[in-house]
Amino acid sequence: MTGKEGLTRLTGRLYGPNCDDDDCPNVYATQRHTFVVQGATFTDFIPPEGESLVEIPEEVLREAFHALGW
Fold first, then answer.
1. How do residues 26-70 score in pLDDT, each as one tens digit?
2. What is the pTM of this model?
């Protein structure tokens, strides 16, 4: 499912609501062939300004790779 921002959701309920009912974290593919991760902010390391870190479970990445056929 492609969203307004050109994101294709690869994990979670593809046609479900946005990140509620324990449906996070999620991985999205962009039209620029990059990935966007949605989830809780990782606070154990402070990245440089303009960057951020999100911690996601291994099984979510596996689900995203499976959705891409990898």
1. 888 888 888 988 888 888 999 999 999 888 888 888 999 999 999
2. 0.71
Read out DSSP for 5-61?
TS-EE-SS-TTS-SS-TT---EEEE-TTS-EEEESPBP-SS-PPTT---B---HHHH
DSSP-derived 3-state class of residue 2: strand
Distance, CA of 46 to CA of 15 (rounded, Å): 33
Q: Distances in Å between the alpha carbon of 17 and those of 13, 23, 32, 45, 50?
A: 8, 8, 24, 30, 28
Q: Which long-range contacts (CB under 8 A, 24 or more apart) does 56-63 make?
A: 56/25, 56/27, 57/25, 60/11, 60/25, 60/26, 60/27, 61/27, 63/10, 63/11, 63/27
